[in-house]
Each structure stands twice: as structure tokens, then as C-alpha cells.
Amino acid sequence: MNRSPLAAALLSLALYTGACGPTEPDLALPAPPLLDTSTMEPLVAETLGAARAAVVAAPQDAQRWSELGLALDAHFFLEEAEQCLAVAIELDPTLFRAVYDHAVLGTMLEREVDEVAARFERAGQLRDDYPPVYARLGDFLLASGDAAGSMAAFEQAREVSGGLDYEYDYATLGIGRALLDQGETEAAVERLAELHQRFPGDPGLATALGQGLTMLQRVNEAAAVTARQKAADEGKVQLGDSVRRDIMTRSRSAAMNFQRGEAMVRRREFAAAAVEFERVLTVDEDNRTARLYLASALMELRRIPESRAQLNAVLRDSPGDLDAHRMLGLFDAESGAFEEADLHFKTVSRDAPLDNLGFQAWVTALGGMGRWDEALFRIEQWSAASPSLAEPAYLRAMALFNANRREEAFQALEAAKALAPGHPIRAQAERILSR
């Protein structure tokens, strides 16, 4: 297919005629979808039930249809969501969120290429300053075999972003992938290599660059990129995983969701990231990495029960999973379940180093149980792993004081102050030692 994404503009304009504000149509509207909520989580059932009730109460209200559609999409009732959003758009074609999500659903439900492109064009007319419209269109067209159209869409995303990185320069990565698909390998490698210098740890970027270098028979450079990425993955204590390398072959849709989710995590857009990883799991439910990323995003959003549920699902499949144990240890230490936290951290420490947050939580748990000798032992391990870090130095002083080793505690406090005199934890340590 050789159609540029912008070539669908006339079709889009025809579909959009008269759509300059809410309408008061005399429509025979369908009933909103009625779902069996008996097996759903109570909060999900309540949310969807309330959204449906709002539509029943005011069936001509486009905003209510849109909110129901978005709620259904968020809980993966995709066909039903698409139906509701279509009604919302018919009632009011200016609702951007409905129009945009309707377009995204088209990529997930395998609608006709021209139809989905027209949906994105309509969204772009409502918000021509929103890069994801064009980046999502670029992903879809590339997966559909339209490399030229994809590149035009990604270039539009870059232009709209005003020179700022959009999702760690996801648009430039897309342009590189489109160039590879068109056979313009040297131009692709030039762009991807420059981007790789800025984002050396991104797996999707490393994959695309490695492919390009291999196609140019620059095998040593390709091997170096692959080795660098492998080292980066292995160095990730929290979320390193070999499953990452399999994602691209399992589902192109899931791969795109995964890459967008990673980008959103880097930008600390955790709510959006959670949606992307949930979508990965709908097509690849055994994807451990996506489940851990989802748990991490939910943790950042303080949706603790949901995050725990994801981690427990990981442990059901792999009882010794270190990343899941570490994250559950953080939860338990924070909630006061100190014995459980200690067990989780012991499991991790047998096979892998803890990061600073893990050590701090472990020490907190041991202190909460009054096990100060063990706390001091873990602090020594932490200090050996991060000798320039101030937190273990100050915590050592407090632990020594609580263990009734006061002289050593004051000496440790002076050493910590010499290491980091302006550290925020200093005031807490001095208050404890002044008792």
C-alpha cells in the first residue's frame, strides 16, 4: 500500500463535514452495553455500572457516552468501548478524547487501514498539536505495510513536538524503523545510531539499530550494540529480563504497547504506562516483564492492592522471582509487615544485590523488629556496595544508638556528617542521638 497518511485527508474531511460542535441529532440510539459484572472486581463493576447508568439517564449526552467508552476501554471491553465512542462521536464530533481513543481502538481491533487512518486524521484536526496522534498512526501504518505513510506520520509527530523529545524521541525511532522497511538502510542507521548515543539502554532502539547494521554487513558493530544491550539488561536489578527480547516476535501490537509503556515510565507518566502494560498482557499474559512494569507503575500510583496482585501472579508462575520478592519486600516494610519483608529481602540477597531502596527498606524492617545487630550487618553490606552514599552512614549511627552502643553511634554520626553535612537525614539522626 503506497498511500501517504495525509492522502486520507479528503476522506477525513468528508467524514468530518459539519462537525464543528455538539449536535442535537434526532437519533435512534442503541442501548449502552450491558455486561455481566458478577465475576468482576467490585470497584470495576461499580465504575462500569455507574458510567452505564449515567448514559441511561441522559442518552443524548455525548460526554457520558464518551466516558462509558473510555471506562470500557480501560478494562479491556474493546468492542463495547468502540461502539460507545462511535455513538459519542456521532452526537458530538468535537470530543477529542473520544475521537482519539476510537482511532486507537481501530488499531487493536484490526479495522480496515483506510478507516483507521481516517479516524486518526479526524483526531489530528481536533488537536494538531498532540504528538501521540501521529506516532500512533505511524506505528499502525508501519505494521500495515505502509512504510512511506508511516514515515510521514512520524515526521509529523516530530514537527508537532516542537523539537522536544516525544516519548524519548519515539518518533525518530519510528522514522528509523520506517526507513529500514523502505530499504533506506544507511539513512536509517545514521538516525538510529545518533539516537542510540543518547538512549543506549532502550531495547527497541538497540534492536532496530542492530538490524540495520547487520543489513549493511557491519557485523562487528551490530554485535557490539547487542552486547551492550545485553549488559544493560543484565544490570537492571529490578526489571531486567530475557522475555523482553521475545516481545517483538509475539505480537507487533504488544511490542508497540510495551515500548510506549517503557517510554511513559521514563517520563513518570505512570497511569498511561499502566494502561499500555495491561494491553500487553491481554495478548501475552505470560509476559513477566510487562507484569513487573505494570506492578511498578501501580506502585507509583499508590494502587497497592492491584500492584500486589500482579506481583503475586508472578510468584505463582515463578516462586523464586527476585524482582517480585524485592517489590513485595518494599510493600511489606512500608505497611509494617516486617517479618514478611525480611523474608522477601533474604530471598533476593541470596542471588542478587539489592539496590539502595531495597537496603533501606530492609534496615527499616529489621529496626522495626528491634533486631539491631542484623540491621547493622545489612547496613555494612549496603555501605560496602555504595561507599559514597550518605544514607547508610546516617542509618548506621541511628542503629548503633538504638542498640545501646552510644559512643560508637556518636562517632558514626560525625563520620556521616563529614561525608554529607547537608544531607536531609542529618536532622533526624541528630534528634535521635540527642535523646
Q: Please outline the major beta sheet.
A: none
**What is the percent of helical residues?**
over 70%
Computed structural class: mainly alpha
Low-confidence stretches: 1-25, 234-250
Number of helices: 24
CA distance, first residue to last residue? 76 Å
Query: What fraction of the residues are assigned to beta strands by DSSP?
Result: under 5%
Measured on Cα atoms, how large is the radius of gyration?
Answer: 26 Å
Q: What would a concise description of this structure say?
A:
With 435 residues, the protein is an all-alpha fold. 71% of the residues lie in helices and 0% in strands. It has helices at 9-16, 42-57, 62-74, 78-91, 96-108, 113-126, 131-143, 147-160, 170-182, 185-198, 203-215, 219-234, 247-250, 252-266, 270-283, 288-300, 304-317, 322-335, 338-349, 356-368, 372-385, 390-402, 406-419, 425-433.
Layout: helices, strands, pairs:
Elements: H1 9-16, H2 42-57, H3 62-74, H4 78-91, H5 96-108, H6 113-126, H7 131-143, H8 147-160, H9 170-182, H10 185-198, H11 203-215, H12 219-234, H13 247-250, H14 252-266, H15 270-283, H16 288-300, H17 304-317, H18 322-335, H19 338-349, H20 356-368, H21 372-385, H22 390-402, H23 406-419, H24 425-433
Helix pairs in contact: 1-6, 2-3, 3-4, 3-5, 4-5, 5-6, 6-7, 7-8, 7-9, 8-9, 9-10, 9-11, 10-11, 11-12, 14-15, 15-16, 16-17, 17-18, 18-19, 18-20, 19-20, 20-21, 21-22, 22-23, 22-24, 23-24
